[in-house]
Hints:
The chain has 349 residues and is an alpha/beta fold. It is built from 12 helices and 15 strands.
Amino acid sequence: xxxxxxxxxxxxxxxxxxxxxxxxxxxxxxxxxxxxxxxxxxxxxxxxxxxxxxxxxxxxxxxxxxxxxxxxxxxxxxxxxxxxxxxxxxxxxxxxxxxxxxxxxxxxxxxxxxxxxxxxxxxxxxxxxxxxxxxxxxxxxxxxxxxxxxxxxxxxxxxxxxxxxxxxxxxxxxxxxxxxxxxxxxxxxxxxxxxxxxxxxxxxxxxxxxxxxxxxxxxxxxxxxxxxxxxxxxxxxxxxxxxxxxxxxxxxxxxxxxxxxxxxxxxxxxxxxxxxxxxxxxxxxxxxxxxxxxxxxxxxxxxxxxxxxxxxxxxxxxxxxxxxxxxxxxxxxxxxxxxxxxxxxxxxx
Length: 349
Ligand SMILES: NC(=O)N[C@@H](CC(=O)O)C(=O)O
Ligand SMILES: [Zn+2]
Ligand SMILES: [Zn+2]
């Protein structure tokens, strides 16, 4: 692609989303076309109710996704399993045998949306992790400790010390994706660690710091987990994403929630960006003067880590201003996308 700083458009290899929430049923049917328009493939998170804990459940979930895909749209869901204290090692073998399950997700119990069935103590999973390491099955981590005594803004940094370092010492060959990193600590850890480790970065964590949650009042659509951090952390994430380091790749963490569950006295965590993800990433990369690094981050580094082919075909993003809708349907409800009603300066054609 072009390396000119302010091109009228950019064309890159068709990208993938390496961290996505699609939900299920009617909600999934409403949001799926947004992602399928933007991305060829996505790593589909397993935090349904009940969670996707077995290869059989993932097989059924995948079939429901493919059945909901509008005619003429090409999209490949890359499935994941939800790790629990009781996941059997043989379940990993069954998952590997499907050929379409590409990772096992660690949700520390209580860390985020639908994580109640998550892992209480990683030591309980060691036999299963051994098989994952043997089969080269990536562990995808929501990297926050759940200790209520730890300040919310410090939970990712503490996770590195309490969970990630011991885990990587015990399983040095296990491929790990540190999902949706939000801190300088995580960006530096991933850049410097030995062995097979990578990280996904969301568009909203590249564009916003924590002020955004409180600008002019409390703004629930900017609340996600891990929560937005200080500006110095945002800058470190931009540096990592635009560095060309192949350990960093795109994961939107687009997380649809019905509007009434976010605009509430105890609102859910999650930002919806599936509608305009590539436009947001282009904005962030342009601000950093690094549009020429967008293709590696969005389309090349993820497949290399997961051992999958790079997509065929391209997408074009044009410098064109358009407005995000105030809401979009989500099953029988509506959701409010991030940047609802705002203008954005790039448009995916
Ligand atoms: N990111 C979020 O704030 N929410 C995600 C869960 C997650 O990725 O932690 C969701 O499922 O809604
Ligand atoms: Zn998460
Ligand atoms: Zn997520």
